[in-house]
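Box 3.1 A note on notation
Throughout this textbook, protein chains are presented in two layers. The first layer is the amino acid sequence; the second is a token string describing backbone geometry. Keep the layers aligned when reading.
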Amino acid sequence: MVKRTVMAAGVFDLIHMGHINYLQEAKKLGDRLVVVVASDETVRLNKHEPLMSQETRAHMVGSLKPVDEVIIGRTGDRFEVVEEIQPDVIALGYDQTHDEEILKEELGKRGIKSEVKRLEHYNHDLDATRKIIRKIIDWYGMKKELDEVEGR
């Protein structure tokens, strides 16, 4: 029996419910889930300074139940890793900025026959790294004010 390979990708800086849902739903699209964790350099170029190293993020993602294999992404040509994996399906998160049509066009040019599937949004109060950071900041601010009121 030929196994269907699904590829998912992301930063995974703080693992949260949005990530868990994304990976669970991606796994449902096939038999084998390969996750590409963005390299530190890519995160710096496109988002922010990573909170954790690419190795730490890859280790955490690899420990999650739906994940069969983890690869740290490369900088430069993002399609090199896709050529290596040769996924049957590329699962995109609801908030990933990839234009599906441009992605399909580039895959076709390279002879990669992958289906591209945009996954649904999972709505949870802590479904994004920034929401978690904001909640910590808000909590810390409230705790500090409470400590001051109580004379600690």
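The domain at 5-123 is CATH 3.40.50.620 (Rossmann fold). Helices lie at 17-27, 40-46, 54-62, 79-85, 100-109, 129-149.
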